[in-house]
Amino acid sequence: MITSEHVKALEKFLGEENLSYFRHLKGLNGSVFPVLKLNSAKKFIPIHPVGLREGMQIRNWMRVNFSEFTEMDQNEIEKYAEKLVEMAISDK
In a designed cystine with 62, which of 13, 32, 33, 69 is the match (CB 3.0 to 4.6 A)? Predict the structure, then answer.
């Protein structure tokens, strides 16, 4: 479902600086959308996953710019967003 049109549009939307950011994340832990764990001892809260705001911004951008993503549920579009970013950073 992801086409070269999607990849090129995302590359233009993010720009080289942000593509480098996602390459860096991928290099650090193997994922462009890593799940972070808060320091529970310091914060006195249970450990729980914290996603990056950038993922939400990309999913919202996908919905606004491409009609094929508008009706997808959160889990489905998140998979496509991750794949799209992966394709965009490997394109260079």
Answer: 69
